[in-house]
Amino acid sequence: MQTSTFKILSVVIPVYNEEAHVEEIVRRVVNQPLPGGLEREIILINDASTDATWSLVQELPSKYPAASFRLINKTLNQGKGAALRDGFARATGDIVIIQDADLEYDPADYPKLLAPILAGKADVVYGSRFIGEPHRVMYYWHQLANNILTAVSNMLTNINLTDMEVCYKVFTREVVRRLEIKSRRFGVEPEITAKISRMKLSGKRLRIYETGISYDGRTYGEGKKIGWKDALAAIFHIIRFRLMD
Question: pTM for this one?
Fold first, then answer.
């Protein structure tokens, strides 16, 4: 597939109680130059926030008229997986990227993440917080849990990722069309990984790349939401979607 066939990048952003960050992440996404002449479409899914997030989201199209927006307001909080499912369904781009709203991940990494797909080498690209890029030093037990989850996922999927739980995952449109997400919360990360590991296009397994990204993790005091219960749930979902689904 040639670079010229890619016209639009869909940036899918689930948001839940991110009134402090949502406008800033959109500003960064809008201002990030894109390679290959790509245009951008920003899909914001408000997951029934209880703060002012939705009011702020509604103002963004008028503040950034150069970008194309699709806004989804969920009246029932269902979690990241359900938000991504809704966002993927609305995406019209030739390439789709997941972007968290909490400023831990930097859109300045988009060119690196997009490069393997634009070059026709990849169908899916994962970012990785653990292969050489700058990152904020954070919780040891979080990284250990991430390493364990990634190792278990790798054993069951037979792929060699270094960061299965990373937010930054990039897909061609053909892959997104075939992804049927069932997980509502953070189980979506192992679910996506399990499903792309066995997905085929034109009878061939997907070409999966990984590239280092920067990471500015936040503390629980700064609003971090994922915890040990999500890690336990991830183990369940790794087994469920590889062996049972």
Answer: 0.88
